[in-house]
Amino acid sequence: MISPIVSVSHEGAAPGTHSLVEALEGGAVLKFSDLDFPLSPFEERFVERPFADGKAKNVNIRGKDAALRGAAGTTEEQEALRQLLIRYRAFAEALINRHLPAYRGKVTFAGTSYRPFEVDRRKLSWRRDDTRLHVDAFPSNPIGEKRILRIFRNINSEGQPRLWRVGEDFASMAQKFVPGLPGYSPLSARLLAALKITKARRSEYDHLMLHLHDALKQDMAYQANAPQADVQFAPGETWVTFSDLVMHGAMGGRYMLEQTAYLAVVDQVEPKQSPQRILARTLGRPLR
Ligand SMILES: [Fe+2]
């Protein structure tokens, strides 16, 4: 099954949708077309040209003090961009509280990013090429029993859509790829943590997700022939998905805001829908 796109109006779920959380945990992308996030006249400049130093893929704020990284512009402009990202984080939190109330108070907000650049199709290595279908996995930051929930918004001012591909459901993908993945070594996981290559011990789940990410991106026959669909997100649209569960590729578009949030597997409405539990079922045993 290809991941569905579920449109949500201001009032809530589209008719026939049981609940938004159920759809989201089942692998849908929720698309909100009529949420307001207006930019001030001063902020318009951030969608007219990129305020980025060009060294990283995007500009972001992190941590309690929301320190801005990767930005360009005057001190005043950088502070305004930082405030814009802080406001977007509050927008993402309000969206969760209103439309996904089961997660209220349970999600942790991580990085907030401003992505002014066109999706890069050529210069990157295959591993960093996000036009290839993949699920998100963070190499240096083990995730363990957490989920990656992402809230995106297209803020393009010239009518340019954000183009995505979505792929087949996680369980079907896992059945094809898990048997070919290298085995997990608790010893080397402890070594990577001791050498500070990873920020915490890499669990078997983290190991599997990293190798899945790479195996998917390297398999050009799968990239071309796997079940998939093109999706467009117009300027002003917001979309929400578990990017560790939903197979996706970013094919084009520039000027986007993105919020990353973490949710513990046990705080899901249906923990058995998590990639952690799906992988355990694929292997026929609990993960280590
Ligand atoms: Fe991704």
Instruction: Give the total of beta strands.
Output: 12
User: The CATH topology is what?
Assistant: Jelly Rolls
State the helical fraction: 25-40%
CATH level 1 class label? Mainly Beta
Largest sheet: 9 strands, mixed
Hetero compounds:
fe (ii) ion
Structural class by helix and strand composition: alpha+beta
* Sequence of secondary-structure elements: EEHEEEHEEEHHHHEEEEH
Shape: globular
Estimate what percentage of residues fall within beta strands: 15-25%
Calculate the terminal CA-CA distance, rounded to whole Å: 29 Å
CATH architecture: Sandwich
Q: What is the tally of helical segments?
A: 7
Cross-sheet strand order for the largest sheet: 2-1-3-10-7-12-6-4-5
Gist of the model:
This protein is an alpha+beta fold and 288 residues long.
Structural summary, described in words:
It comes from Methylobacterium adhaesivum. It holds the Pfam family Kdo_hydroxy. This protein has 288 residues and is of the alpha+beta class. The chain has one domain (5-278): Jelly Rolls. It has seven helices and twelve strands. It has helices at residues 20-25, 75-99, 170-177, 186-194, 204-218, 220-225, 275-283; strands spanning 5-9, 12-13, 29-32, 59-62, 67-69, 108-115, 146-154, 162-167, 228-233, 238-242, 248-252, 256-264. It has a nine-stranded mixed beta sheet. Strand 1 and strand 2 form a beta hairpin. Helix 3 packs across helix 7. The radius of gyration is 19 Å and the shape is globular. 34% of the residues are buried. The mean pLDDT is 93. Fe (ii) ion (FE2) binds at residues 130, 134, 136, 243, 248.
